[in-house]
Amino acid sequence: IVVNNAGVNLENESWRTTIMVNVIGVIEGTKLAEKYMSKTSGGRGGVVVNVASTAGLTPVFFMPVYVASKYSVVGFTRSVAMNPDVGRSGLRFVCLCPGFTDTSLLSSGLKSEGISGNKLVEELLTSTGINTVEFVVEGFMQLLLTDDNNGGVMVVTKQRGIRYHGRQRKVNKL
Ligand SMILES: NC(=O)C1=CN([C@@H]2O[C@H](COP(=O)(O)OP(=O)(O)OC[C@H]3O[C@@H](n4cnc5c(N)ncnc54)[C@H](O)[C@@H]3O)[C@@H](O)[C@H]2O)C=CC1
Ligand SMILES: CC/C=C\C[C@H](O)C(=O)/C=C/C=C/C=C\C=C\[C@@H](O)C/C=C\CCC(=O)O
């Protein structure tokens, strides 16, 4: 199992760091997994979970670079997953797209300039809700334990629960 989870949410003069960590980091991690885990190169197969965000599925006005990075993760993961050679590799590639989740990334982000006290941001948070980490982990475990979901993009939001984006797939209860 490989989970490319590292992420930052920096805009303004530090936006390049967001791209380096959130995009380059995920691509590097995925390519390493392909190199060392693929059955075609002596590996045993497995699963690569790339952590994107609901911000990789819908624009968010106050963090355009972060959104760009997460759209990249979703598009990259789905593209790798649909390669015809994936079948022989024994690998599957999936995306986890949580909504706002109660971690230090969110708490520090909400204190940053232009976001703290912004009424539109507060309205968005109220409408989408904030996941607990435990709820996101529940979705993550379902991603791991479902072995026919290559290319799957799982959305985890407080407002609409755990579901696959764009696919009419039932999410099994653990
Ligand atoms: N908290 C939220 O609202 C949401 C978070 N996410 C994503 O979930 C993932 C985890 O984030 P959180 O746990 O929320 O935040 P977090 O800030 O608690 O954890 C981020 C982790 O990434 C690590 N990291 C940052 N830069 C790194 C680098 N260059 N090399 C190695 N590790 C590095 C940090 O040390 C930290 O442990 C991120 O990809 C984030 O974008 C997605 C949707 C919502
Ligand atoms: C201050 C922000 C700090 C951190 C950002 C956080 O890490 C993050 O990723 C935030 C995501 C915010 C998303 C905002 C809007 C989400 C809207 C949802 O209702 C839409 C969800 C999914 C759309 C696609 C679908 O399948 O419905």
Brief write-up:
The chain is an alpha/beta fold and 174 residues long. The protein contains six helices and five strands.
Comma- or semicolon-separated keywords:
single chain; 174 residues; alpha/beta; 5-stranded mixed beta sheet; globular; binds 1,4-dihydronicotinamide adenine dinucleotide; binds the ligand CC/C=C\C[C@H](O)C(=O)/C=C/C=C/C=C\C=C\[C@@H](O)C/C=C\CCC(=O)O
Describe the structure.
- Helix content is 43%, strand content 15%.
- The chain is α/β, with parallel strands linked by helices and 174 residues long.
- A 5-stranded mixed sheet has the order 1-2-3-4-5, sandwiched between helices.
- Helix 1 links the parallel strand 1 (2-4) and strand 2 (46-51).
- Helix 1 packs parallel to helix 2 (64-81).
- The ligand CC/C=C\C[C@H](O)C(=O)/C=C/C=C/C=C\C=C\[C@@H](O)C/C=C\CCC(=O)O binds at residues 9, 53-55, 57-58, 60, 99-100, 105-106, 109-110, 115, 124, 128, 155, 157, 165.
- Its EC number is 1.1.1.141, 1.1.1.232.
- This is 15-hydroxyprostaglandin dehydrogenase [NAD(+)].
- Belongs to the short-chain dehydrogenases/reductases (SDR) family.
- One of its GO terms (cellular component) is cytoplasm.
